[in-house]
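[step 3/7] fold_predict: job queued, chain A
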Amino acid sequence: MFRGAYEHTVDAKGRTALPAKFREVLQGKYGGEGTLMLAPSTDGSPCLRAYPMQEWRATEDKLAAMDDFDPRVDELIRLFVGPAIEVELDKLGRVLVPQALRESIGVGRAKDAPGGDVAFVGKLKHFEIWDAATYREYTDKQRSEGKLSRALKELSP
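[step 4/7] structure written:
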């Protein structure tokens, strides 16, 4: 399972090293599979979801089983699957995040901007990639508003 939050730098070419703990999960649970699918967040957060291919296929199977004549399903597939991009880890454990996806989450908005910093956030079967400063602001705000404790209370039996 993907757990924890880690910050890494993105180089000028858009490459960033996957956290060692996440590479361990890919090696152990997913047999060293070096392909990830990057897709936009489903809740409107300014981040990307990164799925090992095995988890992505399971997600696609769930979506394919839905009624694609339902406009809600059609919209979900259009907005979630449509922009998804397959990326490969290189020999050094780095992944290239395409410029359009980096810009969509606020990393390197200007064309001439060098890399930037990203936060990798574990979400059990997948992980998120955020602009690091945006993620820090988001978590600070959520904690100051007491959202974590309210969510835990609501979800507790």
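[step 5/7] annotate
Residues 5-132 form a domain with the Chemotaxis protein chec fold (CATH 3.40.1550.20).
The CA atoms of residues 118 and 153 lie 30 Å apart.
exit 0
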